[in-house]
């Protein structure tokens, strides 16, 4: 895809994300923005997160941020992790937790480790395992670093 075509697609998807009449249209737009892997989308995705209420669209925006791999998105995603972890474990949205872990793993920002650490104690083995994979990906020496501290 040449630059002009990519710019046109980017603008189209951003417009759909903010102005789409259905949750499905906005979710697909967020996914397409992630597939473009354009760092310039991070701030726009952050703005969309502030106004979006649909859980599916929110998940797709978080996924898109992971695909873009811009460390500026780390804190925004961590805030969604914190909100989810404030709920009782049986009420937590497991799908969102998986998406958050995978996105933070793709971004690879070590600031996420402190917040992901809570999930190492999860009762759900699949969440615990994915969190361990994220730790390995972000910091291969995480076990030694924890022992030192």
Structure description:
With 149 residues, the protein is mainly alpha-helical. It folds into 2 domains: 1-68, Leucine-rich Repeat Variant, CATH 1.25.10; 89-149, no CATH class. It is built from 9 helices and no strands. The protein has helices at residues 3-19, 23-36, 42-51, 55-68, 74-86, 94-107, 113-116, 125-138, 142-148. The protein starts with a helix and ends with a helix. The mean pLDDT is 94.
Short characterization:
With 149 residues, the chain is mainly alpha-helical. It has helices spanning 3-19, 23-36, 42-51, 55-68, 74-86, 94-107, 113-116, 125-138, 142-148.
Question: What is the fold's blueprint, element by element?
Answer:
Elements: H1 3-19, H2 23-36, H3 42-51, H4 55-68, H5 74-86, H6 94-107, H7 113-116, H8 125-138, H9 142-148
Helix pairs in contact: 1-2, 2-4, 3-4, 4-6, 5-6, 6-8
Q: How many individual helices? A: 9
Distance N to C terminus = 48 Å
Q: How many domains?
A: 2
* Radius of gyration based on Cα positions: 16 Å
Architecture of the largest domain, CATH level 2?
Answer: Alpha Horseshoe
Query: How many strands, what sense, and barrel or not for the largest sheet?
Result: none
Q: What are the salient characteristics of this protein?
A:
9 helices, 149 residues
């Amino acid at each position: 895809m040449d630059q002009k075509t990519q710019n046109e697609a980017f603008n189209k998807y951003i417009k759909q994300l903010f102005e789409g009449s259905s949750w499905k249209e906005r979710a697909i737009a967020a996914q397409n923005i992630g597939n473009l892997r354009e760092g310039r989308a991070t701030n726009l995705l952050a703005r969309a997160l502030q106004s979006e209420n649909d859980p599916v669209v929110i998940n797709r925006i978080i996924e898109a941020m992971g695909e873009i791999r811009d460390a500026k998105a780390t804190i925004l995603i961590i805030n969604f992790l914190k909100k989810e972890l404030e709920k009782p474990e049986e009420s937590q949205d497991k799908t969102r937790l998986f998406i958050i872990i995978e996105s933070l793993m793709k971004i690879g920002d070590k600031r996420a480790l402190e917040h992901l650490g809570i999930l190492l104690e999860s009762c759900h083995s699949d969440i615990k395992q994915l969190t361990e994979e994220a730790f390995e990906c972000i910091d291969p020496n995480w076990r030694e670093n924890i022992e030192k501290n």
